[in-house]
Design brief:
A 10-stranded antiparallel sheet has the order 1-4-3-2-6-5-9-10-7-8, covered by helices on one side. Helices cover 7% and strands 46% of the residues. A hairpin with a 2-residue loop joins strand 3 and strand 4. It is built from 1 helix and 10 strands. It is mainly beta. The chain has one domain.
């Protein structure tokens, strides 16, 4: 890790731990989703109590291997019925090194379209076994590429 706190291998820049929890390392299985209340991503790790938020990434990228795009239909339905956001879609994968390859496609999630490719609006492959790069730009915008 550099003196600025940026881990160039995993892209966990501007990591903010939650309640003193440990920062995930290379090879750790994590769940990543867009935070509904602050810019960037929340990162969950699995502990003895189950999946819990370990911290937040407000700028930088997280590269995941063996990833899959997950949607919980009940949560999606509830968000539509109540007219309120809830976390019902996330990316599940293993933190790894590297950058997105040239064949990576911009991918997005919306409550109406589900996971889809941003360039064609075709339904995105859900995995498992995907490569994924999630980028938080620090302005509230988040981007995802899959391959």
């Amino acid at each position: 890790m550099s003196s600025t706190g940026y881990d160039w291998r995993t892209g966990l820049a501007h990591w903010t731990p939650r309640d003193g929890r440990a920062r995930p390392e290379l090879g750790d299985r994590v769940r990543v989703y867009r935070n509904l209340h602050r810019p960037g991503y929340s990162v969950q790790t699995r502990g003895p109590e189950g999946w819990r938020v370990a911290g937040y990434v407000d700028r930088g990228a997280i590269r995941l291997a063996d990833a899959r795009l997950v949607t919980r239909d009940y949560g999606r339905h509830r968000a539509r019925m109540e007219g309120r956001k809830n976390v019902h879609a996330w990316i599940d994968g293993t933190i790894c090194e590297g950058y997105a390859p040239p064949e990576a496609r911009p991918t997005a999630y919306t409550i109406d379209e589900g996971w889809h490719y941003r360039d064609t609006y075709e339904r995105a492959e859900q995995g498992p076994g995907l490569g994924c790069l999630a980028l938080a730009e620090g302005t509230g915008w988040v981007r995802v590429w899959t391959w």
